[in-house]
Structures are given as structure tokens and as C-alpha cells.
Amino acid sequence: MTGTDEAPLQVVVADDDVLLREGLASLLTRSGFDVIGQAGDADSLMTMVRKEPPRLAIIDIRMPPTHSAEGLDAALQIRRELPDVAMLLLSAHVEVEHALELLDGGRGIGYLLKSRVTDVAEFVDTVSRVAEGASIIDPALIQELVSARRRTDPLEALSAREREVLILMTEGLSNAGIGRRLWITEGTVEKHVRNILSKLDLAETPDDHRRVRAVITYLDATS
Fold it and tell me: What is the DSSP string of 173-184?
């Protein structure tokens, strides 16, 4: 896996679980990434990233000393100081507020449950896509957001098919990818996307990340 034609994509891995951290580092190295550092806490991560910014940082949300949101805080600080560093957050549980806080920060952001790190090919693909600027959100988080919406439902105007397309949009899929998943043409997906943006009163844009941010922000505002 390469960041350019000459050099492999550089990654740092931050997780206090040494077995998981070493396992991810080994998996990424075997898959062609250049793991330039590992950290077991947020302070070590910040020191490492400031010294040699990677293309992507894989960060556990909960790290020492309190195991609350040190990883998230570090990710937010990295985004402020080094906005070109992409980040993939890992969490053992669905943490809606934490995820939304970071997802509002720009391109190249991912949120994945640790339980999803079971299919090597899928995980490597996720890492590559986030590093290239995509926004990828765990489907469990999307389901949590949809379930949490209150009586005033911004999605009420959407058809069942439009809801399916919306969920796949928030997973970061392109129109072509959504079409393949739902067995419909890309043109049909484009029509559904236009309808969704119109019904939710959101500006239409071809940028996949902005679509994800708009949908997540809207869901969050009504939850």
C-alpha cells in the first residue's frame, strides 16, 4: 500500500492494549503500510505525531490515565495542529457524542468499532480510504443516530429506498458503490441523493465527505 508511487503510506497506531496495538501494526506492515510509530497513551501519541507527522493515525478513543476520552482529545488536537493527518478512531462501544465531535472536523476521518476489525481486507481498505480523505462511519453508529431521533423526525419525508441510500451515504460509499450494494443503477442513486438533499433542505454537493457531514450534523441536531 503506497501513499505515493515511491513510498508506502506512513501510519502510527495508538492503543493502550499492547496486543491489539502490536497486532494492528503487524497487520498493516504485512499489508504494505509503513508503521512509523506506536503509542500506548495520548501524550506519547502527540509527541510522536508532532515530531514526524504520519499520513494516518489510528487512535483508540479511550486511553490512559482515565480511559475516558484521552484518545479523542488527542485526535481533536491533531486535527487543529496538523489538519492534513487523517485519523481512524477505534472504540469498543458506540459513542455518538465522541464520534460526532470529531466527524465535524474535516476530511479524512473514520470511526470504527473494534469488533469490526475482523476482516483483514475490509480493514485495510478502510484504512486506505480514510488516508485518502474519505469519511467512513461504522454502521452501528448510524443506527444509533437514527434510533435516537426524537418526535420531530427529519427523515419522515424520505421513502424507504431513500433511507437505505442515506445510510449507505453515511458509510462513505460513492453513488456507484451504493448502486452495487442495492442492485440499482448509478443514475437511480443520483436521483435518490438529489431527493434526499432536497427533502432534508441540504445543499447538493458532489463531495462525499460533505454529504456525510451534512447528514450526521442534521441527525445530531434532531437527536
Answer: --HHHHHHHHT-
